[in-house]
Amino acid sequence: MSEINRKSPESLQDRLEQVQELLERHRLVENLVHKQDGQHQELVEHLVHQQNLVELQRKLDELHPADVAYVLESLPLEERLAVWQLVKTERDGEILLEVSDAVRETLIADMDSHELIAAANSLDADELADLAPDLPRDIVRELMDSLDAQQRDRLKSALSYDEDQVGALMDFDMLTIRDDVSLEVVSRYLRRFDALPDHTDKLFVVDTEGLLKGVLSIKKLLVSSPDALVADVMADDPVVFDPADDAGEAAQAFERYDLVSAPVVDNLGRLCGRLTIDEMVDYIREESEAEVLNAAGLREEEDIFASVWKSVRNRWAWLAVNLCTALVASRVIGLFETAIEQLVALAALMPIVAGIGGNSGNQTITMIVRGIATGQVQVAHGKRLLRKEVGVALINGLFWGCVLAGIAYLLYGSVALAIVLLAAMTLNMLLAACMGVFIPLIRLRLGGDPALGSSVLITAITDSGGFFIFLGLATLFLL
Amino acid sequence: MSEINRKSPESLQDRLEQVQELLERHRLVENLVHKQDGQHQELVEHLVHQQNLVELQRKLDELHPADVAYVLESLPLEERLAVWQLVKTERDGEILLEVSDAVRETLIADMDSHELIAAANSLDADELADLAPDLPRDIVRELMDSLDAQQRDRLKSALSYDEDQVGALMDFDMLTIRDDVSLEVVSRYLRRFDALPDHTDKLFVVDTEGLLKGVLSIKKLLVSSPDALVADVMADDPVVFDPADDAGEAAQAFERYDLVSAPVVDNLGRLCGRLTIDEMVDYIREESEAEVLNAAGLREEEDIFASVWKSVRNRWAWLAVNLCTALVASRVIGLFETAIEQLVALAALMPIVAGIGGNSGNQTITMIVRGIATGQVQVAHGKRLLRKEVGVALINGLFWGCVLAGIAYLLYGSVALAIVLLAAMTLNMLLAACMGVFIPLIRLRLGGDPALGSSVLITAITDSGGFFIFLGLATLFLL
């Protein structure tokens, strides 16, 4: 009996380091060969070089596809492509499925059409559908032609759904049984397979028309008497999904009901696919990453070793939006230039009013957007939420406003200035609270996505609003 | 054969509405009873009232615990507690496990010690460990005493780990077998159970000492010959975890290797628990929510219907930090008050320099922090990443700087001012890029968490830095 091989995350890090070390050695040898051009030397180095490559290749062959993907994502472009060349062609497909979109692009760009078709041929229809959007169009057409009728139909169906729909995430690795056989027969049927599809925790019970009648969980199969009929032990009220369902809601259902797999049925009740927890976990992770990236002003996931130009393209859109909102805020200040000329302390204090308002507004809007996303906040809650947020803003505004007014008094010695600052901070935080509740609820009622750019919008309002309120109050009462 | 009961997310929303409608009716009747105080009337209304409550209770009994949790989270405090009273006591425990931390607090606060102990008694040791931190201390002590020795040991062990460690997330529902028996024997053994633990996709093979020797996947059990020995068909290199492992890394391993369950072994190789995908999914979701909330300046998950005071407490810490950084920026401006007095356009333009720098710096630091979290960025990559980010910042700074300089020239008609603005924007974006790379890498080397408050830190630097660079350059070249 061999020892347990510990595939824990630490050792993954170790393996990445091993690959990097081998690459390093490979490069050192290459440099040596370039420098010392003697015939004999070169031959020796060539052998050493080959040996390193062979060792690296052996290492890669041993790794799980997800680990190869991780290694590829962790390497700068040049080394990434060197390693990619060493990966066996028959593994290309599964590894392309595992890498991030940004890295996949760099790998596909490095492959010729022959290699791409060879890689794609090792995949199932649902996996092909995941890859297809990144492939050149003529390759996709060629692949379509090479598939049999069933696979082609499945690929077409998967491609017909939006990437946020269940239909795009489902697979077709389903085991179906009839309900009028005994569990003994089911067990014999299963033993005819060499292996069962991944994440098979239930068998789907269908009638001769393909209509789903229930599911038989494997656990139930194992504990029940072999003589029992499928119809008697199956569950006839499973959680099912429609291919047009929203993938995010499906993921929430997987979380809520602790599912491992679930049938997908069309509107006639016919079984047409299967969702599994691994796809849902990937979906949850991607969604949450998109949220974080978006909040930071990045359009999409970026290959960390991407070229400067690629990164510029990924980032310019949000910078442009930011520039516009900053310009508006700047023009608001421009309105009050005479006031600032007369009392220059205003210039130093105004960013505080805007900044605290922005922070407070972001707190509110994040809460509301989150509540909408989980379905816990509806338009009808508006009044109640507004009351609460206004209350919070009032307390925070008055408290921090007093702290700040105290500091401003110490710095500038003017009671009137301190009072204006306190009033402006409180008013701007009230504005932030109202907008933080209104904006997402209005977008919800209009049918938009309340999350998109919400932080930019609220910051724009609290910046311009904060400058306007503070400088306006100062003009009215101080000058 | 009954129809398939479609438990899709839409119908969950429906059920929430049904509960709300019943609550509404219940309240209407109560109002009626209060208004019309005739003896006879009251009796009739009382009956109607009772009927509504009974219907509501029936509805709740039918719901999955996770759905009851969802309903509770979606109701304002008063109605939430009304519904909570209607939930059967024996279900309290499982529902408390499902609700969010913030909502759980409100429910526990509404229960007396008798109810709490009844609820806790229905839970396993690992579930109790999840609940224990929210329970009053004397209740936990009382519970400890009521457990048998094995359960108490398990509870103590689970409580001894940090909530970010595998030991705190593992459960003890493991099926173990020996390796010298046939699959036939294993099947017979399994049939002795009424039900198998959730997420049982593999059986753990241990020797007489409790040392893990391998795992037998259920799928393998189903397709293999009943005469085969466990030792011959089991996998002897499963992915295993240590109770002290980081939960986030375990979650990544679950994603990477598409696991459903995995054994947890101590440093002697003894099986001590089990991790399952549902716990990992919850962990992933909680981590990503914490990231989003943190980025918005919220300390922790907030019950959307929390009281004003609770919300103020949740939010004040980040506001305080923000106030400090804003004060520093304000003092930087204060240094240049004479410059602003002489050229008031500076006051209007300076927020643009600071704002764009902040956006750009956040883009950089988010990329780097994310790369560190996934292990793809190491300290050794610093130079390469710095080169790339500086390149991106230079291009963006010069491009947007030129756009802005053009606008400033149109507004103020001064070439010198436009050039100073261009220079300040570019320099501040370079500062943002350098700090966006340095800060997380330095914190990584020092062993801290690079994510914590990274956005606040970089924004503080680009604000104060932007004001200083712009006003400083203006003082040097324009006055």
Commentary on this structure:
Two copies of one chain form a homodimer. Helix content of chain A is 69%, strand content 5%. With 479 residues, chain A is mostly helical. Chain A starts with 8 loop residues before the first helix and ends with a helix. In chain A, the strands form two sheets. A three-stranded mixed sheet of chain A has the order 1-2-3. In chain A, strands 4-5 form a two-stranded antiparallel sheet. In chain A, a hairpin with a 5-residue loop joins strand 2 (202-206) and strand 3. The model of chain A is unreliable at 1-9 and 32-38 (pLDDT under 50). Chain A folds into three domains: 9-160, MgtE N-terminal domain-like (MgtE N-terminal fold), CATH 1.25.60.10; 176-295, CBS-domain, CATH 3.10.580; 308-478, SLC41 divalent cation transporters, integral membrane domain (Tetracycline Repressor, domain 2). Chain A has 22 helices and five strands. At the A-B interface, helix 1, helix 3, helix 12, strand 3 and helix 13 of A face helix 1, helix 3, helix 12, strand 3 and helix 13 of B. Chains A, B: GO terms for molecular function: magnesium ion transmembrane transporter activity; metal ion binding.
